[in-house]
Amino acid sequence: MIHAEGVPEVTDSTFDEEVRGADLPVLVEFTADWCGPCRQLAPVLSAIAEEEAARVKVVQLDVDANPDITSRYAVLSMPTLMVFRDGDPVRSMVGARPKRRLLQELEDALGTPAVQPRS
To answer: What single string gives the DSSP state of each residue in the chain?
Structure first.
């Protein structure tokens, strides 16, 4: 799995506790080693995990190693980003995107203003 620095990995066995049971909204990246756009997204996820830690928890799930969760949420393309709030998926996005756009999409999904990106 392409690991984003500072972003923990969840698995089939830890997903419900770490994501569905989280106090904060959770941004889950469904990723795989063979996914080129996932490599592009890794530094974006690392930055958001650090800068937005008070508002959203960011985690990664390796689709090849965790087929149960991948199939539960019908994930077919990588990267797929899903925002979970109160244990339920509230937004799904497919493909890599720049930090500014991802922050805007998170703001829309969470209903709270995002911290302005650093220049």
So the answer is: --PPTT--EE-TTTHIIIIIT-SS-EEEEEE-TT-HHHHHHHHHHHHHHHHTTTT-EEEEEETTT-HHHHHHTT--SSSEEEEEETTEEEEEEES---HHHHHHHHHHHHTSPPPPPP-
Q: Which among 2, 7, 38, 42 is annotated as catalytic?
A: 38
What local confidence, expressed as pLDDT, does residue 52 receive? 95
End-to-end Cα, the chain, rounded Å: 29
**Residue 35 annotated as catalytic:** yes
Does the active-site annotation cover 38?
yes
Among the listed residues 35, 48, 103, 114, the single catalytic one is: 35
Scanning the structure block, which residue is given the tokens 């244990």? 87
Prediction pTM value: 0.91
Query: Which amino acid would we find at residue 45?
Result: L
Q: For the chain, which ranges sit under pLDDT 70? A: 112-119
